[in-house]
Amino acid sequence: MNIKPTNNDVDRIFETYTKPGSPGCALAVMKGGEIVYRQGYGLSNLEQNQPTLPSTVFNIGSMAKQFTAFTIALLENEGKLSFDDDFRKYVPEMHDFGPTITIRNLIHHTSGIRCTFPDLLFLAEWRESDATSTDDVFRLLKRQRELDFPTGTEYAYANSNYILLALICKRISDLSFAAFCEQHIFEPLGMVSTVINDNYYKIIPGRALGYYVNEGVWMNAPLTDSVVGPTNVYSTVEDLALWDENFYTGKVGEKQIIEQIHEPGRLDDGTELDYAFGLMVGPTHQHHGWQVVEHGGGQGGYTSHMIRFPERHLSVVALFNHFVWNARDYALQVADLFLDVKQPQKSEATESGTMTTPPEQIDLSAEQLKLKTGKYFNHRRVALREVTLKDGRLQYQGYDLVPLMEHRFFIEDEPDVYVEFQTGSSGHSENIKTITISGEYTYDRVESVAPAIEELADCTGHYYSTELDLYWTIHLIDDHLIVKRRKYVDTKLSPLFTDAFSDDWQPIMEWPLTYTIIFERDEARAVSGFRVSGSRIRHLKFVRVTGLIYQPMKKVRV
Question: Mean pLDDT over residues 38-48, rounded?
C-alpha cells in the first residue's frame, strides 16, 4: 500500500506551471466520497495575471458526452424513448440512409454518420475562430447523403452522434438541452458552477481563458463554439467531484441508470466495444491491474481528463486551459500516488487479453524481412500503413515487429496486436492483416507512383460537393497539384499511389490535419470526381463540374 502522499508529491507533477506567465491546470483527487486534494496551478487568465483555483471554470471538452448520454438514459427510464428507436423518429429532417440507425447506435458511435468536428466543419471551411452553433452543424448534417460505414459494423468516434442525442433530448423534453441538464442533473447534485454554453455570448463567471503555444509564445485560443451535446459543458473540479460521487450513490438516476450507462456497446457481430454511455470502460482500460472508467476531452485551448477507479472509490480529474496531448498521463501520475499495484489473478489476466509472458520468437533472414516491406492500403477505412526495415528489424508504422513465424509477427510495444503477411507468387507480401482485440483489418499492397505531368493535368478543374455545398479548384503548377479553396488554406497534393494523394493542411492551434484524396474515373478512364477522407470522415464525394471556366495557375504560394 502506498504511503499517504504529501502536497509536495502532487505539486511536483505540475511544476512546469510554476513558470511565470503560463496557463495552468485545476486538479482534484476524490477518495471515499470526499475531495482529499484540490489545487490550481498556473494562470487562468494571462492578460489579467489571474491564478487558477479549484473553483476556476473550464470547458471540459468531450467529457461532456457522459452528461448527454445520461440525459438519454433518464428519458429512457421514464419511458419517453427506447434505445432501439430509429433516431429519425425524433429527427426526421435527417436523410434516410437505408437501414435503421438507432439511438443506441448514436450513443456507442456505431451509426456511421460523419463527424462534424474536426473534419466536416474544416472541410466546409470553418475556421477555429468562426462562430459555430448547433444550428450550423445540424444544417451540415442534414446535407449528408452517405455514411462512413454500414451502421453497426464499426465503432468510429464522431461528435455528430452526440449533437443528435442532445437534439433528441430537447425535442422530447420540450426544454433546451442546457435547461434540461440544469434541472435534472446539475441543480440536484449541487453543481452550482456548471453550465452548458449554448450561446457563445453567455457570461460564464470564473471562466478560464484558453491558450495554445506558437513558436514558444502563448496565444489566445478563441472559442466561439456553442454546439451542445458532444462538448461545451463548463465546470470546475469541485463540481465534477459531486458528479463523480453520483456514480456511487445514484442520487440522480438511481442504481439502474448508473449500471446502465456503464454497459459497453456492441457491434452487430457481437464484438464488445470499450465505449459505454460517454464513458470508456472494459478490459482495455486498466491501470496497475485496477479497472478504470474514464473519458477525456479537448476543444480549442482546453484539455481535460477524468479517471475513476471504482474498486478503490478513487478518482482524479484534471482540467487544463491549454492544449496538451498527455492530460491522461497527468491524471495517472497523480493516481499513482494514491494507488497500490493490484496483483491480478490468472483468470483476470486471461480474460483481459493481456499477454502474461512473451511468446517464443524466431529469427528471419534479411531477405525474408525485406520481402514484407512496402505500403498497404485498406480502401474501406481509407487507411495507409507502411512496413519498413530498420537496423535489421521489421517495423509497422514505426513500431518494431517481433516474428513468431515467418509470416506472423506481434508489435513489441503492444504484444496483443498481431500482423500477418500473405505472400504472393513473387515472394513479396500482397497484403497484411492486423489482428487486435477490437477486430481484424486487411490492407492490400500499393505501389508508390510519380505521376507524369500529363496525368496530373487530367485532374485539374472545378469540383463540387453537395454535402458541403462548396467548390474546390485543382490547379497544376510546376510538377504538382494545388487545391484552391474559397477562404481556407491552399494545399499541395502529394502522390501516394495511383490516383491517390495526401492533402496535408497547416496545423491549426497544434491540430495537424491530413486528408486523403482519391480520384474517380468514368468508363472512358476520364477523371469524374474524387473522394476525400480524414481521421473521422470517409469517402466524401466531389464531382467534376463542366461549364465553368478553368484558369490554370502560373504561381501559387503553398
Answer: 97
Quote the CA–CA distance of 362 and 405 in Å, as a whole number: 7
- The grid coordinates listed for 19 are 513558470
| CA 315 – CA 35 distance, rounded (Å) | 9
Neighbours of 206 (CB within 10 A): 14
Q: Are residues 107 and 235 in the same domain?
A: yes
Of 424, 446, 468, the residue that ends a domain is 446
DSSP secondary structure, 325-337, as one string: TTHHHHHHHHHHT
Pairing outcome for strands 132-133 and 225-226: parallel
Residues 345-369 have pLDDT tens digits of: 554 444 444 444 556 778 899 999 9
Residues 6 or more apart whose CB falls under 8 angstroms from that of 304 comprise 58, 59, 60, 61, 63, 296, 297, 298, 317, 318, 319, 320, 327
* The three grid cell numbers given for residue 215, joined into one nine-digit string: 513558436
- Rounded CA-CA distance 61/26 in Å is 15
Q: What does the DSSP assignment read for 120-161?
A: IHHHTT--TTS-EEHHHHHHHHHT----SS-TTS-----HHH
Distance of alpha carbon 74 from alpha carbon 253, whole angstroms: 7
Residue 37 and residue 29 in contact, taking contact as beta carbons nearer than 8 Å: yes
Are 463 and 430 in a shared domain? no
- The CA distance from 107 to 102, in Å, is 9
Residue 557 has pLDDT above 90, yes or no: no
Task: Enter the pTM of the model.
Answer: 0.92
Is the predicted pLDDT of residue 312 greater than 90, yes or no?
Answer: yes
Based on the structure, what is the number of domains in the chain? 3
Whether residue 169 is contained in a domain is answered as yes
Residues 48 and 123 in one domain: yes
Alpha-carbon distance of 330 to 320, in angstroms, equals: 11
For the segment 479-515, what is each residue's pLDDT rounded down to a tens digit? 999 999 887 778 999 999 999 999 988 755 556 688 9
- Grid cell, residue 295, equals 473519458
Say yes or no: 420 and 468 in one domain.
no
Indicate if 315 and 434 belong to the same structural domain: no
- Asked whether the predicted pLDDT for residue 147 surpasses 50, the reply is yes
Lookup result for grid cell 491540430: 511
How far apart (Å, rounded) are the C-alpha atoms in residues 311 and 317? 17
Q: What Cα–Cα distance (Å) separates residue 321 from each residue in 63, 130, 228?
A: 15, 20, 19
CATH code where residue 396 lies: 2.40.128.50
How do residues 408-423 score in pLDDT, each as one tens digit?
999 999 888 999 999 9
Q: Are the beta carbons of 542 and 465 closer than 8 angstroms? A: yes
**Grid cell listed for 136:** 450550423
DSSP for 417-468, written as a single string? EEEEEEE-TTSSEEEEEEEETTEEEEEEEE------HHHHHTT-EEEEETTT
List, as one string, the DSSP characters of 7-69. Answer: HHHHHHHTGGGGSTT-B-EEEEEEETTEEEEEEEESEEETTTTEEP-TT-BEE-GGGGHHHHH
Least Cα distance to 413 among 393, 428, 430, 432 occurs for 393
Whose cell is 499495484? That residue is 341
**112 and 192 share a domain?**
yes
Q: Helix, strand or coil for residue 80?
A: coil
